[in-house]
Design goal:
The protein is an alpha+beta fold. 34% of the residues lie in helices and 24% in strands. It contains twelve helices and 17 strands. Strands 6, 7, 8, 13, 16 and 17 form a six-stranded antiparallel beta sheet that branches. A hairpin with a 6-residue loop joins β11 and β12. α2 crosses α3, α6 crosses α11 and α11 packs antiparallel against α12. It starts with 7 loop residues before the first helix and ends with a helix.
């Protein structure tokens, strides 16, 4: 059978072994009856549990090409009855904490009206408090735009003259939207490639752990923003750079985890090693850390109960 991976439920939470729930529904309908218990001992992100619930959803079942009769009998593509509409129950188990975390959020019951109300309230409050972090001057007129994302580029050193090269400005070909294999150094015109450039680092005092740490030297090179429904792009101006500097100087919020990563292969090789990521908070740029901490603090402030869990896990 073939099922696509662009369905909203599949996209909601990434997980490396995820299987589309509609593929699983077919098996469960074929082999079980409503109310049966399904055990998935290697549940991953919990899509088996999602599938058992959707076995009671007429629209979801018919989206598979089946037909549901008035009495709940399900007919296959050949018009043959083979199953009954109705939810099955599931026991989901996995050794991975990330998997059980995602599976729980997919499958635990949620009071949707209460969730919707609290989530929107938190969004409004965070917008009022931190919305200024995502404002930028529109390149046409005096309107303010809302930043969708900022593109950052690593800064590298030329092997011939040691001049600093902002990689995306020199190596990225806008017309073909690809990275050039070779390109001239903007300082000495020597032909260089990413393989012979040296990654530069900045040193700064990390107050969260009380140590001076290194991090790759990066500069913002492009801002994608919206004014109304229209989207625009521009190079960061002086106000944008001043805003980033202001956010950089803010202290790390308490709700951002600063746990040190254990010694493992991922920290010794590849991107984590070159990026000098040693603690959890190093994964986040300053603006993102401030925003996520604000959301988490407000979710954590909800009264104990299912809504606190649901909003906090969002």
């Amino acid at each position: 059978m073939s099922e696509g991976k662009n369905q909203p439920i599949y996209i909601a939470h990434a997980y490396h072994t995820k299987v589309p729930h509609r593929a699983i529904i077919r098996y469960i309908l074929h082999y079980t009856e409503p109310g049966d218990l399904v055990l998935d001992g290697f549940a991953g992100s919990g899509m088996t549990g999602v599938a058992t619930q959707f076995c009671s959803d007429r629209a979801e079942v018919e989206a598979l090409g089946y037909r549901v009769q008035h009495d709940g009998t399900i007919h296959n593509e050949l018009g043959q009855p083979f199953s009954k509409l109705g939810a099955r129950r599931a026991i989901l188990n996995d050794l991975s904490p990330a998997a059980t975390f995602i599976a729980s959020n997919y499958n635990m019951p949620v009071d949707m009206p209460a969730f919707d109300g609290e989530a929107k309230r938190i969004l409004r409050e965070v917008e009022e408090e931190l919305g200024w972090m995502y404002e930028t001057a529109h390149k046409r007129g005096n309107a303010k735009g809302r930043i969708n994302y900022t593109v950052w580029s690593e800064v590298l050193a030329c092997p011939e003259c040691s001049g600093e090269i902002v990689f995306s400005r020199e190596a990225f070909d806008v017309k073909t939207e690809s990275v050039r294999d070779r390109f001239p150094c903007p300082h000495c015109s020597a032909m260089v490639s990413k393989n012979n450039l040296e990654l530069l680092y900045d040193s700064h005092f990390d107050s969260a752990i009380g140590e001076t740490v290194k991090r790759p030297k990066r500069v913002p090179v492009l801002i994608n923003y919206s004014v109304g429904k229209a989207k625009y792009e521009k190079e960061p101006d002086k106000e944008d750079l001043s805003l980033i500097d202001r956010i950089e100087k803010m202290s790390l919020p308490e709700h951002v985890p600063t746990t040190k990563l254990p010694d493992m292969q991922m920290t010794r090789v590849g991107r984590m090693q070159t990026a000098k990521v040693t603690h959890v908070h190093h994964f986040f740029l300053s603006r993102t850390a401030q925003l996520l901490a604000a959301f988490w603090e407000k979710a954590d402030g909800l009264a104990p109960g299912s809504i606190r869990r649901d909003v906090g896990y969002l």
